[in-house]
Amino acid sequence: MLEELKEIRLKAFTELGSASDFKELEQWRIRYLGKKSRLTQILRSISTLSIEERRNTGAHANAMRKSLEEALEEKSHALKTSHFAPSLENRVDITLPGYPIPIGRSHPTTQTIEEICQVFQNMGFQIFEGPDVEWDYYNFEALNIPADHPARDMFATFWIDSNRGMKNRLLRTHTSPMQIRVMEQLKPPIRMIVPGRCYRYEATDTTHESMFYQVEGLAVDKNITMADLKGTLFDFCRCIFGDERKVRFRCDYFPFVEPGVEIAIECLACHGNGCRTCGYTGWIEILGAGMVNPNVLRGVGLDPDVYSGFAFGMGVERIPMLRYGIDDIRLFYNNDIRFLRQF
Ligand code: DAH
């Protein structure tokens, strides 16, 4: 009988090994562990054996039953898992490197805005945002540019509607209107910057887009002087362009400031020697600024004999254009992934 048990065991394990689905497994169970199986018969007949045989065969038969049950359990588990992950090792080379998941990144303009904001935040400036659709009042009137002012020609405007023949809503041509909105809401001391989109009704070329970004700045308090303006903006230039870069500071005109200034840095492309990028001047203008015009302060109810301030505004795209030698501003908004991916 022991011989027979051995044989059954060998057969059972061989067949179990080749069972490939649950149906075959069930048939195997009936064949080897079912009521009519030889093993069950042997176990049932044990009581009829002599004491000596009973001890020997009984122990063997029971141990075998147990090991067959365990093997069945194991095989059934293996089938279950391989059902969900069809033998990974056989079909997939798990040592191959995976497909890279394309990772997004922020737009070069966004990156530059974040960098500019960080520099001013470190100096204690607060960030504000304002509407792209603006009133004539904020974009021009309150900034000391009345309806017939020649400076309106500086800003080719997309008008949105006209009210009783008076054009009054537009796409903001600069971020300066936020100076007024913030001064209407807050009392000095004010230190704020405003990043945002601006629009100009102009033909596009390598240096002009009809939509672009600016960052505006404003500081208003008692005793603010030109020295504060110069110190703040020179510091800014050093943070963005490096300590060694020369900075030029000279007069300019903007209706909302008096006096007005312009800041230029030594051309990054030719180091001041003169090239196509800087129009052979060696300098690149990067921002306009000035002391807030007393008319502007009066317009928001601040007494220019008590308060003073400085303001500045800069184009954003210009900075990465200079840094990376990008010669066409239109690349920024064509959404060509091959361009954007480089930053
Ligand atoms: N808004 C001006 C422009 O778009 C730039 C500017 C110049 C802003 C001087 C200012 C400033 O705040 O003081 O050309």
Q: Return residue spans where pLDDT drops below 50 for at least 5 consecutive residues.
A: none
CATH top level class name of the largest domain: Alpha Beta
Oligomeric assembly: single chain
Q: What gap, in angstroms, lies between the N and C termini?
A: 80 Å
Helix percent band: 25-40%
Major β-sheet annotation: 7 strands, mixed
Q: Which small-molecule species are bound to the chains here?
A: 3,4-dihydroxyphenylalanine
Q: Looking at the structure, what is the overall shape? A: rod-shaped
Q: Tally of extended strands? A: 10
Mean of residue pLDDT?
90
What does this structure look like?
The protein has 343 residues and is an alpha+beta fold. The chain folds into two domains: 2-91; 108-340, BirA Bifunctional Protein, domain 2. Helices cover 40% and strands 21% of the residues. It is built from twelve helices and ten strands. It has a seven-stranded mixed sheet with strand order 1-5-6-10-9-8-7, with helices on both faces. Strands 2-4-3 form a three-stranded antiparallel sheet. Helix 1 (2-18) runs parallel beside helix 4. It starts with a helix and ends with a helix. The model has no long low-confidence stretch (mean pLDDT 90). It binds 3,4-dihydroxyphenylalanine. 3,4-dihydroxyphenylalanine binds next to strand 9 and strand 10. 3,4-dihydroxyphenylalanine binds at residues 174, 176, 216, 254, 257, 288-290, 311-313.
In short:
By secondary structure, the chain is α+β, with helices and mostly antiparallel strands. It contains twelve helices and ten strands. The strands form two sheets. It has a seven-stranded mixed β-sheet, sandwiched between helices. It has a three-stranded antiparallel β-sheet with strand order 2-4-3.
